[in-house]
Amino acid sequence: MMLKLVHLLGVLVCSGQAALQVSISLNKVELSVGESKFFICTAIGEPVRLDWFNPQGERILPSKRMALHTEASRSRLIIYNAIIEDAGIYRCQATDAGGHTEEASVVLEIYQRLTFQDIQSPQEFRHGETAEVVCDVISSPVPVVVWYYQDKEITEEHHSRFQVLANNNLQIHQVTKADEGVYRCEASVEARGEIDFVDIAVVVNVPPVLSVLQQSFNATADYQESVTFTCLTSGSPDPLVTWHRKGQQLEPSEQYILNRLEGGRSMLTVRNIRQGDGGTYSCRATNKAGSQERELFLKVFVQPHITLLKNVTAVEGSAAMISCVAEGEPLPDISWRRASDGQTFVDGDKSQDGRFEVRGRHGKSVLTISGVRLGDLGRFDCEALSRIGGHQKSMFLDIEYIPKFLTNHTIYYSWEGNPVNISCDVMSNPPATMLWRRERFTISAEGTANTRVHSAEGKSVLEVTPMSDRDFGRYNCTARNNIGVRYQEFILAQADVPSNPYSVRLSAVSQRLATVTFMKPDSHGGVPISYYLVQYKEVGLQDWRDVRSHSIQTTVVLTGLEPNTTYEVRVAAVNGKGQGEFSHTETFQTLPIREPSPPAVHGQRGMGKAYRLGLVKQDDGGMPIVEYIVKYKTDKEEQWMTKLVPGANDFAMLQPLQWNTRYEVEITARNVKGLSEPTFYQFFMPQKPDITESLFSGLGLGAVVGLGLGALLLLLVLVDVSCFFLRHCGLLMCITRTLCSKKTATSGKGKEIEEGKAAYLKLPLKEENGKESLKPDTIEIKVHSDNSIHTKPDDSKA
User: Fold this and answer.
1) Which of 86, 204, 329, 470 is the most exposed place for a label (fewest CB within 10 A)?
2) pLDDT tens-digit series, residues 299-351
3) Which of 456-470, 675-689, 692-706 is predicted with the least confidence, judged by mean pLDDT?
4) According to its UniProt entry, what is the function of this protein (predicted)?
5) How far out from the chain centre does Cα 263 lie?
6) Domain ranges within the chain, ordered by starting residue
7) What is the pLDDT of residue 715?
8) Is 740 helix (H, G, I), strand (E, B) or coil?
9) Listed range (405-419, 529-543, 710-724) with the worst mean pLDDT
10) Are residues 50 and 24 in contact, defined by beta-carbon separation less than 8 angstroms?
């Protein structure tokens, strides 16, 4: 340096002017990346310019990273945040007025300090893949990198799956969960003695493993049933389990309940299962290493349900189609039942007459009725049936038809002044409107002077009061609905009295009675017969006696006749118009008085040693029965015992009789004419009954039950009295306490001095033999104010 200065001074002296000299404060500088530095350039002489040049020879202009501060003979270059590219030789050049230049230079060396760039921790990898743990470290010169795991250096010799790459990263082949942990990346620059490290956490993520305990489930809809799906998951990190259906994630709700339990168990509960809940559900487990999904299937059985069945209206003679639609899982079979006769039809059936046919598929059945008849009207039942259950609904087949007249009674009879109702009865659907016509003129609903119309559903009555012959004749009833119109003609004819009955006969003639029978007259005169008039009298007398028949019966019984007497009888029919002619007169004679017929007998055992004979009077022979002669004896005796019974009685009581004995009886009826033939009867008296039977043989079931209840009640009273004296309890004790309590409460409200007083009840004692003692000994029952009861023997006994 001193030699250079001497040389410069020599030059300046020789030139005669100050020589131009340039110097930089530093000759060589080492700078780490990111640091800042400035350099000062000084010129001696008379420079007019000072310029700086970068290592590329380019003149340096001021910028953000390089700043210049220049004065007359001094210039400062500042380099901010140096980078590797800034390294090189920088020159400072001075120029004088004559254009002469001098320069000085400085060498700038830039090195990179140990720097770890964007090191992430933890670094995550998927189980089984080749993991590359990144350790991006820079420096100049290039650093030496060593990896450590669990405080031991990682070498390929001891770790076959581990390899340090050229970029200083650590490669792990087929990484497993066991490789998790903290790895240390250590970098050093031997030239500078610089060393640094960074710890990196390695996390190995294991993809989810998912399994299901049961894949298929069955349930029945609309029975408040629930089904729980269960998924078992494992993985690292713990997988997130979600449930999906039809591409949508299920969220917790009243219907869906999601639970996560320990051990990786996840459950989805589907509540209140309905038909639409059936199908596929998926369980999806997801974590950083991946996801896995399993499907579960819910089979929902649905009870058959008929969704469509409507009433049908058809026109008589046309075709009717009845549809029944049902749903369910499995799809139900549909059948039909006709309520009128219980006949059933299933798919493919066809009735014998070919009118009923059933066709169905996919939950729909159609019952077709060809040529609909009125008999088809009514209820039809549709039943949908599967192995889950059944459902039934009913519909009504309504049939519209043209009006139909219900009666063939078209001729009516009446007479002048007698009103008659001509009834036009119609069956139709829909209901028909009805009109009356006579000789092409319509009879209004209000009627005329001698006609009136009374209308009701399905019925119209024309009331006609004939006033002359013109009112008799033809009347027309017209019935009309939207299906069609029908007509019926009625004839109003003049009525007459009935013709005479005939074939009058007498039967069952006795002393006092006779039965008259006859045939109805050939003509009732157009008006129903009201009754028959039977007249009879004794032959030779003038006055007839009348007997009316009961309603229109053709048999009449004549009573109160005299025995052995000849009578005449005749019959006439009576209707609303009047009485008809009498029949031919018939003659008959009553029977003379004779002995009575044998009586009928029936027996019944009486009470004890008695026997009751029931007597039924037969033919009394024309005179009252005076008495019954009853003779009886045992089958071992010869002598008869006789008992006379008045004729008005209907029984005879035989007593006393012998036990275990057979009796023979002979009964004869007697009137004033004489005795009847005897009636024979036998009966057997049983063995003598035991005492129980004797006691209750005369009592009915009600009496026996009453005696039993009375005995039970008496026993209960005795037990209650015993409890009263011995244990101070029972119904009697409760009544005593209640009564004494009321008395004490009433007397003690205003009188405190009454407390403690006792009420004494003197009850007679009983000796051990149960007899009442006549001694004045008593038991004292003391009722205190607190309602307590104490008993003690009387002092007098002591």
Assistant:
1) 470
2) 999 989 999 999 999 999 999 999 999 998 899 999 999 999 999 999 999 98
3) 692-706
4) May play important roles in selective fasciculation and zone-to-zone projection of the primary olfactory axons.
5) 40
6) 21-112, 117-205, 213-301, 310-401, 406-494, 502-589, 600-685
7) 85
8) helix
9) 710-724
10) no
Task: Give 579-597 pLDDT, tens digit per residue.
Answer: 999 999 999 999 998 889 8
Sign of CA dihedral 132, 137, 138, 139: negative
pLDDT, position 733 = 75
Q: Answer for the pair 653, 612: CB distance below 8 angstroms, yes or no.
A: yes
Q: Which two tokens stand for residue 651?
A: 């029984």
**d(Cα 235, Cα 414) in Å, to the nearest integer?**
109
The listed CATH number (1.20.59.10, 3.40.50.80, 2.60.40.10, 3.40.50.12780) that belongs to domain 21-112: 2.60.40.10
Phi-psi region of 150 (alpha: psi -120 to 50; beta: other; left: phi over 0): left
CA distances (Å), origin 375, targets 311, 341, 372: 17, 11, 8
Identify how many contiguous H helices and E strands the chain contains and give both numbers: 4, 61
The answer to whether residue 243 scores a pLDDT higher than 80 is yes
> Which distant-in-sequence residues (6+ apart) come within 8 Å of 498 by Cβ?
521, 523, 524, 525, 529, 573, 574, 575, 580
CA within 13 Å, CB half, 622: 18
Percent helix, strand and coil across the chain, each rounded to 5?
A: 10, 50, 40
pLDDT tier for residue 704 given thresholds of 50, 70 and 90: low
- Residue 146 C-alpha from the chain's centroid: 78
Are the beta carbons of 536 and 647 closer than 8 angstroms?
no
